[in-house]
Amino acid sequence: MFPRTLWGMDNITMYGAEWCGDCRRAKQWFERNSVDYTWVDLEEHPEEIDTVIGYNEGRKNIPVVVFGDGSHLTEPTDADLEAKLAGDADNGEQ
Predict the structure, then answer these.
(1) What is the pLDDT of residue 5?
(2) I need a surface site. Which of 19, 22, 63, 66 has the fewest CB within 10 A?
(3) Strand pairing of 38-41 and 64-66?
(4) Distance CA 20, CA 47 (A)
(5) Cis (ω within 30 of 0) for the bond into 63?
(6) In what order do the strands lie in the sheet with 64-66?
(7) pLDDT score for 92
(8) Are the CB atoms for 65 and 26 separated by under 8 Å?
(9) What is the CATH number of domain 8-85?
């Protein structure tokens, strides 16, 4: 379990879709590690696709995980998420 509020991670938002395997894996990682996050399903909220494109410099890759400190990860591995929440990531962006 990660005390995410200690690192300014109290507002985590993940943009993705249920059909996306990486999205499902990231959701499972957050749940397994008791990390709260807001899920934005792009199938239900297609207007948010522009947000994803903005974070990804024109690409539609998902998931995009946006952290309370303003950084984000695109298609993060479990190790990327762990490093970010442990405070070990250099700047948290991919």
Answers:
(1) 47
(2) 19
(3) unpaired
(4) 18
(5) yes
(6) 38-41, 13-16, 64-66, 72-74
(7) 45
(8) yes
(9) 3.40.30.10
Q: How far apart are CA 17 and CA 54, in angstroms?
A: 17
Determine the average pLDDT of the residues in 19-24. 97
Contacts of 54 (CB under 8 A, 6+ apart): none
pLDDT tier for residue 66 given thresholds of 50, 70 and 90 = very high
Angle at CA of residue 65, ends 59 and 68, nearest 5°? 125
The answer to whether the CB of 93 falls within 8 A of the CB of 66 is no
Q: In the 3-class helix/strand/coil scheme, how is the chain assigned residue by residue?
A: CCCHHHHCCCCCEEEECCCCHHHHHHHHHHHHCCCCCEEEECCCCHHHHHHHHHHCCCCCCCCEEECCCCCEEECCCHHHHHHHHHCCCCCCCC
Domain parsing of the chain, residue ranges: 8-85
